[in-house]
Amino acid sequence: MFEALTDRLTQVFQRIGRKGRLTEEDVDEALREVRRALLEADVHYTVVRDFIAAVRERAIGEEVLRSLTPAQQVIAIVHQELVRVLGSERVPLLWASQPPTIIMLVGLQGSGKTTQVAKLGYHLRKEGRRPLLVAADIYRPAAVEQLRTLGKQHDLPVYDEGTKVDPVETVKHAVKVARDQGYNPVIIDTAGRLQIDEPMMQELERMAEAVRPTEILLVADAMTGQEAVNVAKEFHRRLSLTGLILTKLDGDARGGAALSIRAVVGVPIKFIGTGERVDALEPFYPDRLATRILGMGDVLSLIEKA
Amino acid sequence: KRSRQGIFRQIVQLFERSQIDRELFDDLEALLIQADLGVATTEALLERLQERVRRGEVRDPVEAREALREEMVALLEAAMRNRRVKIYQRGVPFVSLVVGVNGTGKTTTIAKLARYHLDQGRTVLLVAADTFRAAAIDQLKAWGERLGVPVIAHAPGADPGAVVFDGMQAAHNRGIDVLLIDTAGRLHTKSNLMAELAKIRRVIQRHVPDAPHEVLLVIDATTGQNGLNQARVFTEAAGVTDIALTKLDGTAKGGIAFAIARELGIPIAYVGTGEKPTDFAEFDPEAYVDALFFGDEED
Ligand SMILES: Nc1nc2c(ncn2[C@@H]2O[C@H](COP(=O)(O)OP(=O)(O)OP(=O)(O)O)[C@@H](O)[C@H]2O)c(=O)[nH]1
Ligand SMILES: Nc1nc2c(ncn2[C@@H]2O[C@H](COP(=O)(O)OP(=O)(O)OP(=O)(O)O)[C@@H](O)[C@H]2O)c(=O)[nH]1
Ligand SMILES: [Mg+2]
Ligand SMILES: [Mg+2]
């Protein structure tokens, strides 16, 4: 699958090249390959459609038609457009003017929330902060225990009230503890939930209402397919997300879901998760993800040659 | 109350047109891709439909709808023919190894399977071979307690092979009918972790040469095209026999299962439709296709 797009585009243009000058139809044929690559990377169908339209406009307006290296030209434009959609600049975490800063992680079941809570805590403590982790998942068996264990392993304080208390209350109390004892930020682990689960979504709304988080980050699995868009849209509609953490990028998923979410919901990608261990949290670089979505490790060198 | 305003209600509307035209195929392509079937499988299905239109078997949108439904069911059924018959014998452990990437629902599926076997009057033993993830052992023990099923576990960080060894021995000694082994989530790209699964298999086979009788790959219905790589590599490393498709209570359609069935021929055995042990069923291609794609939905 890797390198496939470069190869396919090169083939398309070689075939076309023999009959002379490129036409708009030739560009369209190339863009059909790009479209396929994006769909195979799990970019949402409608996002791909809009994206291809934008690239087409540029490709035809620019020098591609007369270029000697049309495959590279097309890839360069596609890559630039991908970076543009992904957000060319890195957006740092927001900090509250009045401490503590409250960071709440939300998302579907199993996306990696609890693990990223620990990772974020670890990362921010390294930057000299005093984070407090809060266990607000009272549903999944041993979810509280999971966060406690991670806290113990890495010497990060964890606040919990067991599983018999309304998590909204737990979170309120945690924020008070943080205020009194100088913890900052407060990082909240919430239970996984479907975006269509009404009572569970209301719980998050109540929680957000109660403590007014500085950041509400959607934790999304890089392997997610086309539904990423609907999931993110609904979480955003109900909670006004401030960002995204894309997890499990240590595998071979191309991560097109991130592009879809970014394109449709517009919130910045703040971190990526690249492993199960607590130090596997990295800042997000749009150009690297763009390269990955295209399935080409060597795209940059190609563009240099172009 | 959950409101699933599935896009696949649209599929019904799609066929409410006067004739089969190019636009119908474009719309179908959009819907199938949005259900995660992937480009290749979508094209293959629509080509078969086209072919039937060309041959004059399918003449109007109503017939096209039925034909597509048939093709989708047939695709899944072809893989179902690769199923290994599951033979349960009293007191001889049927060994089920549950594998998959991180967070797909392995541990929860074990709880569901346990309840399923208990309902059939079988005795069940759980093995906590995820010794890596924080509180994974506690999670399985919590399920064991709720279901009244014993759990063989070692300390966190212990060798998974050693736990499985003990589990096999215990199942043998206690004359257990079904042994369910929970493994740590692992990405198929991590060769050392995949080798660990091969090792677990060898430990199992030292006790029972024809085991594991079932190697369940748990795939999250929300998964996109990466699911195909998962299925391919887990099958090579761990000899996957069936798929358990989880989280079908969400809005995702699990279309990757079609791609896996078509390209790798791996059958789906079970579906998960929630977080409770009862949110579980044996896979039925027709019921699945009807419920998720042809919109005769309840709630
Ligand atoms: N490979 C990899 N695994 C990850 C990453 N982040 C989390 N995981 C794993 O993904 C699985 C699920 O992670 P959790 O943190 O429990 O996910 P969650 O969202 O809290 O799950 P629920 O609370 O059940 O909704 C675990 O096996 C984690 O170790 C990552 O970046 N890479
Ligand atoms: N909605 C829904 N959630 C599910 C289903 N199956 C599992 N889950 C949830 O998904 C999350 C992860 O489930 P686990 O069983 O812990 O997944 P796992 O594969 O064992 O995870 P790791 O061991 O960390 O790799 C939990 O929050 C489960 O409650 C399902 O069919 N539907
Ligand atoms: Mg969690
Ligand atoms: Mg597990």
Inertia-based shape of chain A: elongated
Which oligomeric state applies? heterodimer
Principal-axes geometry of chain B comes out as: elongated
Stretches with pLDDT under 50, minimum 5 residues of chain B:
1-5
Average pLDDT over all residues of chain B: 93
* Share of residues in helices of chain A: 40-55%
Radius of gyration of chain A: 22 Å
| Elements of chain B, N to C (H/E) | HHHHEHEHEHEHEHEHEEH
Number of helices of chain B: 11
Give a nutshell description of this structure.
The complex is a heterodimer of chains A (about 300) and B (about 300). Chain A has about 300 residues and is an alpha/beta fold.
Can you walk through the features of this model?
The complex is a heterodimer of chains A (about 300) and B (about 300). Chain A has helices at about 5-15, 25-40, 45-60, 70-85, 115-125, 145-155, 165-180, 200-210, 230-240, 255-265, 285-295, 300-305, and strands at about 100-105, 130-135, 160, 185-190, 215-220, 245, 270-275, 280-285. Chain A is an alpha/beta fold. In chain A, a hairpin with a 7-residue loop joins β7 and β8 (about 280-285). In chain A, α9 (about 230-240) packs parallel to α10. Chain A is elongated and about 70 Å long. The two termini of chain A are about 20 Å apart. With about 300 residues, chain B is an alpha/beta fold. In chain B, β6 (about 240-245), α10 (about 255-265) and β7 (about 270) form a beta-alpha-beta unit. Chain B is elongated and about 65 Å long. Chain B starts with 8 loop residues before the first helix and ends in a 6-residue tail after the last helix. The complex binds guanosine-5'-triphosphate (2 copies) and magnesium ion (2 copies). One guanosine-5'-triphosphate sits at the interface of chains A and B.
